[in-house]
Each structure stands twice: as C-alpha cells, then as structure tokens.
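Query structure, 203 tokens:
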C-alpha cells in the first residue's frame, strides 16, 4: 500500500456526520457549488472543500482565510499543503499561498489545455498531474517532468519510501521516477493496479 500525503475525507465519513457538514465561508451557509472536486483537511484541522465555484472552509473563524476564499474564484480542482505553503489549482492555474500571511505568493499558469487533475504532497514537494503533463513544485519553483511514451495519459502519482510512481492510462501502467524523468520498470506491465487517492495496491 502506498499512502498519499494529503488528508482526504471519504464520502462515507461525510455521510456519517451530517450535522457537522454545514461549511461556513465568507459568512454564508452551505457550499458555493453542488459540484465538489475535493475535500481535504489541513494540519490545523480546517476542512477545505474545492468546488466548481470556489472554496468553502469548515472549522475556522479566520478573517484572513475568508479574504483568501474571496480571492479564489471559479472552478477549484485541487488543494494541497506543505509546511509553509498552500497550493490551490484553478483549471490550468496554480495559486501558491503563504501559510502564515495567507496571501498569494505566486500564480503559475501551466499552459492551455493542461487542466490540473491531482495535486499530491510527496516528501513536502507538490506534484501536479494535469491532462497532459506532470509537474514537480518545490516551494515556488515548478519543473515539468518528462515521462516515457507521451501517448499515455498521466492519472495519479504516489510515493513509497524513496520511490515515486506515476500511474498512466490506457492500461493503467506504472512508471517510476529516476530523478530526471519517469521510466518504465518491472511494474509497468502490471495489469490494472488498483488505486485511489488514499492508496495504491500493486498486488
């Protein structure tokens, strides 16, 4: 099992706690959109909900967080955290927010047609999986990572000990990061490895 480094919240846990699911954001009740892309908890215990019409944050009364939420408009696809920064993906943009000031430190455009599908924290570095590329983000510095066979579509990424694996489609094959690019390995030929945002099973 390869655990992810974010703290996603399952739909089951949401259904088990309906009374606690009235997210408050910018003084309003409920969610900004009924289409939810991600639910994740930060280390302070705030629950961040990414929707097709902005962010809702539960368990906070912070005015700074409310101001940040007001600045993030449009469809929010993914959110990830490191020790010092918050990463918020709007389609093909990534907003990098300073965790202390809660101000946007940098905005990165990934290119036309490169919509963010996953943000993962692996060893305190953020990996962005888009519709046609893989990016590693170290602080404010972003690097596009090459992978074999560009016909394959990147789907997800996970870390295990010192290894980083990329899951691609079609045929759900697995590529391994060698420090420069993702290459085929003995794991590449596994048939349909099972994975979700909580784990990857190679058995």
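Result returned for the query:
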């Amino acid at each position: 099992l390869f655990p992810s480094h974010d703290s996603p919240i399952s739909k089951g846990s949401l259904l088990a706690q309906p009374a606690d699911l009235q997210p408050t954001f910018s003084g309003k009740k409920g969610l900004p959109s009924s289409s939810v892309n991600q639910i994740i908890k930060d280390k302070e215990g705030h629950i961040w909900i990414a929707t097709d019409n902005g962010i809702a944050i539960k368990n906070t009364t912070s005015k700074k967080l409310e101001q940040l939420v007001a600045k993030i408009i449009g469809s929010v696809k993914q959110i990830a955290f490191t020790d010092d920064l918050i990463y918020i993906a709007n389609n093909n943009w990534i907003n990098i927010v300073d965790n202390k000031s809660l101000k946007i430190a940098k905005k990165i455009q990934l290119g036309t047609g490169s919509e963010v599908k996953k943000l993962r924290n692996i060893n305190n570095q953020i990996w962005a999986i888009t519709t046609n590329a893989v990016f590693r983000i170290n602080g404010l510095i972003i690097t596009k990572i090459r992978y074999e066979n560009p016909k394959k579509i990147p789907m997800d990424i996970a870390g295990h000990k010192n290894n980083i694996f990329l899951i691609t489609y079609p045929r759900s094959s697995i590529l391994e990061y060698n420090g420069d690019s993702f290459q085929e390995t003995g794991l590449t030929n596994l048939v349909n490895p099972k994975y979700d945002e909580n784990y990857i099973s190679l058995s």
